[in-house]
Recover the amino acids of this structure.
């Protein structure tokens, strides 16, 4: 097979022209013009001012708003993965040579995989470029310090020369290129290269080419001009051409994408921990963990917060499944840039790793669905003369490399089963249809080091070098396993399925992961297959299926956040507090504290109370049994969902739009933590353990408990509380104790921004906990009939059976009667949340507050959510229209 290239793709020609036009106006330099130079160097007769003027026109014509202009001869070209970036810069080289006579080009690549891809493209485009450029002679080679003659030819030859070199070839002083050698007449190779003013092309520069060290090394090459080619630039300057993921996807320049999300559902009873990384600070590092947190409502929610050494996971999450999980140590490896967290129970996690997940069952379903999709596509595409490849990413090679490795065994077992189901026979070549693309250093780490890769010469040759053979029906290999760290730089146009069998979820970027299979497919005769523009939804041939080990929401959120990071420059950034900001001082007004008005209000509301609960125990037990018997708990399962990405949208907040295509579930083997149900229910409901045992002794659906203990616990507590709220009689009585005035601090320091200045308060400013409180405070200030208002302090608490409660405001409303010149003051306590909008615990606490104030002889308690409602309720309480 020979790849057939398309010379007239507009988006590629636009990218080439954007570079070539930078030097518009410069004359063609013929080889003989450098005859008197010591070396055959690049010469470009155009001023920098003219180049930058051309740059500005190109940027304007290409409609690039954020080009990051800098007056340096260093330019960025951005092309989405899979759109022919390597072809574009190689053809650009020939255009620059033909138009301006530039003849010395160095392509710097970050890895062996990228280098092999570049060398392969140089080989297979030779005939194609010969037709386009009238057989212009050129030499291309990969830099090898042992083959100095090729480097000398590069320096002294007058014809077009292209040298490809790894960044590792010149990144330290001990590299041969940076040393004086007898084999090079006592000169450094780098000094020779410096003399020719090469055009420097950086392929994937974001991978280590912009460190302080590499900036110094690149400068030694003395480039005439530098061009950066990538889909994901980290250092962005002078961006002259952009083909974004949005453009590529919506114009059909890459495959469409669908996502199989496979993840465990109903994990509340698992000791679920997801370690997302660490945050470094001047103090000790903090670990970012995603855990199941118990909310005030009793429900559980996955939340991400930071933990430090010594933190108790059970206490911080209020979740009993994390009992005995205490952070012992948080570590960051400065060499590998990965982090680890150690717990006191002996369990360790690496950054990106999860605990409490049924990995084996998830792996099984991922492999099963990848194989099923592979078979379906294989049958569908055979008549199109397209071979189907599937790529598996794994992050623990030990899971595949040996005959008894988990993933290898699972793959061969599932492949055999699905093959028999599909074709009603057993496979004859199971050992030939899959292989691995791995390499190890002497330290046992997986790498893309060339020497290490070539030790596995068979896989190296087949997968990395001989890409045409891999696309042939004659080659039996169809399933490729690769270490996730080795994915960059290797891709194949006929990868139709990508499966992430990683034990970690967060370390591979989604764009990098998807990019391995984005290229449009190639038929047996080397022709690029393109779907018709009017192809119906679901009938596309170029469709990449990603089988992900996470929910579709999590997958798309990660993918979308990467797109926003790259293109959503207008997105609002999180607000950070300046370390130099000083807290605001709020001062107590002593005169108000000692005033008659405040004394009267405080005398009424400062009394403390206690409550007594009365209920018929047998009735409570009977009602609880009745309610708990109707609880239905879903089992922990593996959820499988298929979603098709229908479009990418640059200008919209929702960058990715998709359509749900179907779903399935599979059995899971949950790893539940032990939970003391009776103790947890007793703590949350104030029932005795003896009463709770009597309730559970009478239950008929105890099997629901073992399905998911924490989910059952949550629902049981809610239902028991509902019974108690209905059946209990709650009585408050004063204790004879009071909140003392000395508890009011003279000065309060705060960083809170919602501060309302007031002449009517105990302090010169009111600290508001919410926008709603702030709105009410402004109203209290402006309403002349409100003489005084007090934001009740946090230490003012009302005891309830389900926890303390803190009301919002105390008010003094003054009525002035003009007929008899009498002033009347009325005291109110106001809660600025309407009870109609509250449920469960909060509503119960407000009802307790009503009973508390009744016990104080104080009947003017109001809950409200709006100012008109407040005014109406106050007028009703007073029996006349005051406000």
């Amino acid at each position: 097979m020979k790849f057939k290239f398309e010379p007239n793709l507009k988006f590629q020609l636009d990218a080439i022209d954007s570079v070539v036009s930078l030097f518009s106006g410069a004359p063609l330099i013929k080889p003989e013009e450098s005859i008197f130079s010591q070396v055959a160097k690049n010469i470009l007769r155009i001023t920098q001012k003219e180049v930058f003027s051309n740059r500005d026109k190109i940027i304007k014509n290409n409609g690039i708003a954020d080009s990051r202009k800098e007056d340096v001869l260093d330019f960025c070209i951005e092309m989405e993965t899979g759109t022919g970036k390597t072809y574009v810069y190689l053809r650009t080289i020939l255009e620059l040579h033909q138009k301006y006579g530039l003849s010395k080009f160095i392509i710097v690549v970050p890895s062996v995989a990228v280098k092999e891809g570049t060398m392969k493209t140089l080989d297979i485009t030779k005939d194609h470029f010969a037709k386009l450029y009238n057989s212009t002679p050129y030499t291309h080679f990969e830099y090898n310090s042992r083959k100095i003659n090729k480097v000398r030819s590069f320096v002294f030859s007058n014809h077009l020369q292209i040298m490809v070199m790894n960044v590792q070839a010149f990144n330290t002083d001990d590299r041969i290129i940076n040393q004086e050698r007898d084999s090079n007449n006592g000169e450094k190779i780098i000094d020779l290269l410096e003399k020719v003013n090469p055009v420097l092309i950086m392929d994937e520069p974001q991978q280590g080419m912009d460190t302080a060290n590499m900036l110094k090394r690149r400068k030694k090459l003395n480039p005439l001009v530098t061009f950066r080619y990538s889909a994901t630039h980290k250092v962005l300057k002078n961006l002259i051409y952009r083909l974004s993921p949005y453009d590529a996807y919506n114009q059909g320049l890459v495959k469409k994408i669908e996502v199989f999300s496979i993840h465990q559902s109903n994990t509340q009873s698992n000791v679920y921990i997801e370690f997302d990384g660490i945050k470094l600070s001047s103090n000790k590092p903090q670990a970012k963990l995603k855990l199941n947190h118990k909310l005030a409502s009793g429900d559980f929610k996955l939340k991400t917060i930071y933990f430090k050494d010594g933190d108790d996971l059970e206490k911080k999450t209020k979740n009993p499944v994390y009992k005995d999980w205490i952070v012992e140590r948080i570590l960051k490896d400065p060499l590998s840039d990965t982090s680890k967290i150690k717990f006191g129970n002996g369990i360790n996690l690496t950054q990106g790793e999860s605990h409490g997940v049924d990995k084996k069952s998830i792996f099984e379903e991922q492999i099963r669905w990848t194989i099923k999709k592979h078979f379906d596509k294989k049958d569908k595409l055979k008549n199109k003369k397209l071979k189907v490849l599937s790529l598996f990413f794994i992050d623990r090679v030990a899971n595949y490399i040996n005959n008894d490795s988990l993933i290898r065994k699972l793959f061969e077992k599932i492949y055999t089963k699905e093959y028999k189901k599909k074709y009603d026979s057993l496979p004859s070549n199971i050992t030939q249809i899959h292989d691995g693309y791995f390499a190890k250093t002497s330290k046992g780490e997986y790498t893309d080091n060339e020497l290490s890769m070539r030790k596995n010469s068979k896989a190296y040759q087949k997968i990395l070098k001989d890409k045409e053979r891999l696309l042939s029906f004659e080659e039996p290999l169809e399933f490729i396993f690769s270490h996730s760290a080795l994915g960059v730089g290797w891709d194949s146009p006929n990868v139709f399925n990508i499966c992430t069998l990683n034990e970690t979820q967060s370390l591979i970027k989604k764009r990098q992961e998807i990019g391995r299979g984005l290229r449009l497919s190639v038929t047996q005769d080397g022709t690029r297959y393109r779907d018709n523009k009017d192809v119906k939804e679901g009938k596309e041939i170029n469709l990449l299926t990603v089988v992900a080990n996470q929910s579709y929401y999590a997958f798309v959120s990660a993918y979308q956040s990467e797109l926003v990071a790259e293109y959503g420059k207008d997105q609002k950034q999180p607000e950070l507090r300046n370390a130099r900001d000083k807290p605001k001082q709020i001062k107590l007004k002593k005169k108000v504290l000692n005033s008659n008005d405040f004394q009267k209000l405080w005398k009424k509301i400062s009394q403390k109370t206690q409550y007594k609960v009365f209920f018929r125990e047998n009735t409570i037990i009977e009602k609880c049994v009745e309610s708990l018997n109707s609880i239905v708990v879903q089992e922990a399962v593996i959820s499988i969902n298929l979603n098709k990405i229908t479009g990418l949208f640059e200008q919209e907040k929702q960058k990715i739009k998709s359509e749900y295509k179907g779903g399935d579930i599979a059995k899971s083997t949950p790893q539940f933590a032990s939970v003391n149900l009776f103790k947890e229910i007793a703590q949350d409901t104030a029932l005795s353990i003896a009463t709770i045992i009597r309730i559970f002794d009478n239950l008929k659906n105890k099997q629901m408990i073992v399905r998911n203990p924490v989910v059952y616990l949550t629902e049981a507590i809610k239902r028991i509380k509902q019974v108690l709220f209905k059946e209990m009689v709650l009585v408050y009585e004063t204790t004879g104790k009071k909140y003392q005035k000395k508890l009011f601090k003279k000065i309060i320091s705060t960083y809170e921004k919602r501060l309302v200045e007031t002449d009517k308060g105990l302090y010169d400013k009111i600290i508001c906990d919410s926008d709603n409180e702030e709105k009410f405070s402004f109203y209290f200030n402006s309403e002349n009939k409100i003489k005084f208002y007090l934001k009740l302090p946090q230490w003012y608490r009302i005891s309830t059976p389900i926890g303390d409660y803190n009301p919002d405001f105390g008010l003094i409303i003054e009525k002035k009667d003009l007929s008899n010149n009498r002033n009347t003051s009325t005291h109110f306590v106001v809660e600025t949340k309407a009870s109609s909008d509250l449920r469960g615990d909060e509503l119960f606490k407000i009802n307790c507050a009503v009973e508390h104030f009744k016990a104080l002889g104080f009947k003017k308690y109001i809950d409200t959510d709006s100012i008109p409602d407040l005014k109406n309720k106050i007028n009703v309480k007073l029996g006349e229209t005051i406000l």
Remarks:
- The chain has four domains: 10-243, 271-355, 361-567, 584-611+735-878.
- The first helix runs from residue 10 to 20.
- Residues 271-355 form one domain.
- The chain has 27 helices and 32 strands.
